[in-house]
Amino acid sequence: MDAPKKVVLAYSGGLDTSIILKWLQTTYGCEVVTFTADLGQGEELGPARDKAILLGIKPDNIHIVDVREEFVRDFVFPMFRANAVYEGLYLLGTSIARPLIAQHLVRIAEATGADAVAHGATGKGNDQVRFELGVAALNPGLRVIAPWREWNLASRTQLLAFAEAHQIPIAKDKRGEAPFSVDANLLHTSSEGKVLEDPSQEAPDFVAQRVVRPEDAPDAPEMVEIEFERGDAVAVNGERLSPAALLAKLNELGAKHGVGLLDLVENRFVGMKSRGLYETPGGTILLEAHRGIEQITLDAGAGHLKDSIMPRYAELIYNGFWFSPEREALQALIDRTQEHVTGHVRVKLYKGSARTVARWSKHSLYSEKHVTFEEDAGAYDQKDAAGFIRLNALRLRLIAARNRRVGG
User: Fold this and answer.
1) Known active-site residue 232
2) 157 and 208 inside one domain
3) Is 12 a catalytic residue?
4) DSSP secondary structure letter of residue 207
5) Which of 73, 74, 115, 181 is catalytic?
6) What is the pLDDT along the chain (408 residues), one digit of tens a residue?
7) Alpha carbon distance 312, 15 (integer Å)
8) Identified catalytic residue from 49, 98, 210, 327
9) Residues whose CB falls within 8 Å of the CB of residue 298, separated by 6 or more in sequence, listed in order
């Protein structure tokens, strides 16, 4: 295969992607364009620009883009309309960021005339799949370069030697074995590897990046009121906020109360199990509140249908199929169910828990008149239940009679 002429690299500014940047230059002799996404990871991104310039990248070829609002509005919120949870626990914080990054890699490649894109995901993980499926869906003509699957730098020692040989700055704490790997964005922080690789051992306290230990959280609970419109959160405690600002506010509240800390062994798409520590404070509150408002505004049939397809929807996101026709079809169904998911939810935060305690809406289907234990003024005739039960019992009666007859 011919060497690429221009490559757009998903670039964090860290040691690994800096080595990849130089490797692309030395291996292919190609022009490199960098893309760094501000996903709300909480780090200054200026150093990424400075390091790219130091490594010979032209200023016009350095793209640092604030995608926080786009990330929450176009990716996180649609996912939360589905109440998506992978394997019953994981809120997909890393998974949902990857299609956004792939989308921008393709956009920049098309704008700059690049014939390839590159990423720093390893050959053992899920991210390589997510990035590359995203690129394939958006521009199948682009070549994807995955250095971890191509180069012969097989150890940390070799990586550091390559960095030193090419005068790539190495942070002092990177010269030894890093205790664990961290990926962060506005929705969550994930930590994996090293001290977390033995699932029989409790994760050390120092691994958590943003959530306080529940036992160290305030002794007094705190109430938070969230307003929804058509399935999306629009205000916190009466203050209307943009999607990114709203999630940041919920993160602040949840982190203070130890909400959203998850120790999980999950099944990767590539076939192995992995253990990670996930911190999703705002997302945990948002999921609880969204389920709370759906409880009174969503019809039982629509709600149960949503719950039945949710695992499939979550799996599609986890496996990298955000841009697939089946995910888009499921999204259309999910969004249709959200037309009346409008109202308010009050959630109590206390020592690691986020619990709905009240919900109200003009769109509510809840009828106190029908469920009251007191006189209902004829709203519901309890005698009607007898015929309802007889009809539903008919097939069970026929089965039982048949089994008695034939000894089954």
Assistant:
1) no
2) no
3) no
4) G
5) 181
6) 789 999 999 999 888 999 999 999 999 999 999 999 999 998 888 889 999 999 999 999 999 999 999 999 999 999 999 999 999 999 999 999 999 999 999 999 999 999 999 999 999 999 999 999 999 999 999 999 999 999 998 877 888 899 999 999 887 654 455 567 889 999 999 999 889 999 999 999 999 999 999 999 999 999 999 999 999 999 999 999 999 999 999 999 999 999 999 999 999 999 999 999 999 999 999 999 999 999 999 999 999 999 999 999 999 999 999 999 999 999 999 999 999 999 999 999 999 999 999 999 999 999 888 887 888 778 888 999 999 999 999 999 999 999 999 986
7) 36
8) 98
9) 306, 337, 340, 341, 365
Q: Which of 68, 95, 127, 210 is catalytic?
A: 127
- Give ∠ CA 162-166-167 in degrees, rounded to 5: 115
Query: 202: buried, middle or exposed (CB in 10 Å: 19+, 13-18, 0-12)?
Result: exposed
Q: Are residues 225 and 236 in contact, defined by beta-carbon separation less than 8 angstroms? A: yes
How many CB atoms are closer than 10 A to CB 251? 28
Residue recorded with tokens 């000894």: 407
Tokens of residue 144, six digits: 């994807």
User: Is residue 327 in some structural domain?
Assistant: no
Domain boundary among 152, 178, 204: 178
* CA–CA separation, 15 and 55 (whole Å): 12
- Total count of residues recorded for the chain: 408
Greatest C-alpha distance within the chain: 86
d(CA 40, CA 51): 20
Contact 260, 284 (CB under 8 A): yes
Cα-flanking dihedrals φ and ψ of residue 395, to 5°?
-65, -30
Say how many domains are in the chain.
2
16 is catalytic: yes
Report the predicted TM-score, pTM, of the whole model to 2 decimal places.
0.93
Is the distance from CB of 114 to CB of 7 less than 8 angstroms?
yes
Q: For residues 307 and 285, give the distance between their C-alpha atoms in angstroms, rounded to a whole number.
A: 19
Catalytic residue flag (residue 127): yes
* Catalytic choice (16, 74, 115, 376): 16
Domain coverage including residue 345: 182-298+340-360
**CB of 3 closer than 8 Å to CB of 29:** yes
Q: Which domain-ending residue is among 122, 147, 178?
A: 178
CATH number for the domain that contains residue 171: 3.40.50.620
